[in-house]
Amino acid sequence: MPILNRAAELQSEITEWRRHLHTHPELLFDVHETAGFVEEKLKAFGCDEVVTGLGRTGVVGIIKGRNSGTERVIGLRADMDALPIKETTGKPWASTTDGKMHACGHDGHTAMLLGAAKYLTETRNFDGTVAVIFQPAEEGGAGGDEMVKDGMMERFGIQEVFGMHNMPGLAVGEFAIRSGAIMAATDEFTITVRGKGGHAAMPYQTIDPITIGAQIVSGLQLIASRNADPLESIVVSVTKFNAGSAYNVIPEEAELAGTVRTLDADVRAMAEERISQIVHNIADAHNAEASIHYHRGYPVTFNHADQTEFAISIAGEIAGADKVNSEVAPTMGGEDFSFMLQARPGSFIFIGNGDTASLHHPEYDFNDEVIPHGVTYWVKLAETALTRN
């Protein structure tokens, strides 16, 4: 099945929407202008219902099919927020807000789902109901969790939910997916080491939190190499180490922070326990005090088997089976669509963005050639899901 003719016809219009969104990036839950743009479009398309303010600033459009009396309801989700990065693309549609840019392609995700919504409201060639979900705060704010907690699934009777993200390096027109864990749980930790400050020339009179902190950094690296099964995936990265303000003064305190990425619940629990043991034992060995704040972030993005098999079949019909990698390696990046997949069965797929800068890079830009492929995927997934038994 090739790209839908209507999706190709809409490409230039959807590109205009995408570039408008790119020019006006907003962060986390502060996506009022973006949400307003989405709301305006959905109402103009003729959605049967448009609900705003879900998960603070999320938007949901309801599109009923030709036989909306059936109970089948699926959700299609896009994210709306940008990143606190200064753009360096030099494109005519580059961000006009200094220090903010769409460096992850959420502008493209939103535009493609809007394009699918326009098509689905025009044709309504399905039974049941499609809920198009536009979510805030994917980039660290857990907006997906907020929408779930706001009762979105129950309110609209959503039974299955599907997500999509662009992937730089994967050719335009190709897809990548896997059943099970496809993206990692993302936890964060902050460690404070309190020692005894003093003159740098007399370290024996101090309890040096910097040397203790350095031992903690080394100790934490042993979790992956010595505590986890080598066939399990885990990353423990210390990304901050702040201490001291002078060349000749050993400070009283040092602060370390970092992230833990895992694909398995037991490994996740083990890492949290071992971090606590390592930090406190090293601090105790040097007569220092240590405290840890451990924050469990996004859970594992886990694709359900039946919905993933279905998504693979749709992607294969569009791109050809040889253009769908159905066993893509999991990524240790995080994704808060995971909360929606905890609430309802569903699947998350990657769509090729071509040879572009990587995600979260100041030179990244969503590839507008992807648009008809993404719109076709959404449309055929919805139409097929709502006609299959």
The arrangement of helices and strands along the chain is HHEEEHEHHEEEEEHEEEHEEHEHEH
Average pLDDT confidence is 97
Write out the CATH superfamily name of the largest domain: Zn peptidases
Radius of gyration: 24 Å
> What structural category do the secondary elements indicate?
alpha/beta
Give the proportion of residues in helices. Answer: 25-40%
Number of helices: 10
Strand order of the largest sheet: 1-2-4-3-5-16-6-15
| CATH class bucket of the largest domain | Alpha Beta
Proportion of strand residues: 15-25%
Shape: elongated
**CATH third-level topology of the largest domain:** Aminopeptidase
Number of domains: 2
Number of strands: 16
**What is the CATH architecture descriptor of the largest domain?**
3-Layer(aba) Sandwich
Q: Main β-sheet, in a few words?
A: 8 strands, mixed
What is the first-to-last residue Cα distance? 21 Å
Question: What does this molecule look like?
Answer:
With 389 residues, the protein is α/β, with parallel strands linked by helices. It has 2 domains: 5-183 and 300-385, Aminopeptidase, CATH 3.40.630.10; 185-298, Alpha-Beta Plaits, CATH 3.30.70. Helices cover 36% and strands 25% of the residues. It is built from 10 helices and 16 strands. It has helices at residues 5-23, 32-45, 106-123, 143-149, 152-156, 209-227, 265-285, 305-319, 337-343, 371-385; strands at residues 49-54, 58-64, 73-79, 129-135, 160-167, 175-176, 180-183, 185-194, 198-199, 234-243, 249-250, 253-262, 289-298, 301-303, 324-325, 346-352. The strands form 4 sheets. Strands 1-2-4-3-5-16-6-15 form an 8-stranded mixed sheet, with helices on both faces. Strands 10-12-8-13 form a 4-stranded antiparallel sheet, with helices on one face. Strand 1 and strand 2 form a beta hairpin. The radius of gyration is 24 Å and the shape is elongated. 47% of the residues are buried.
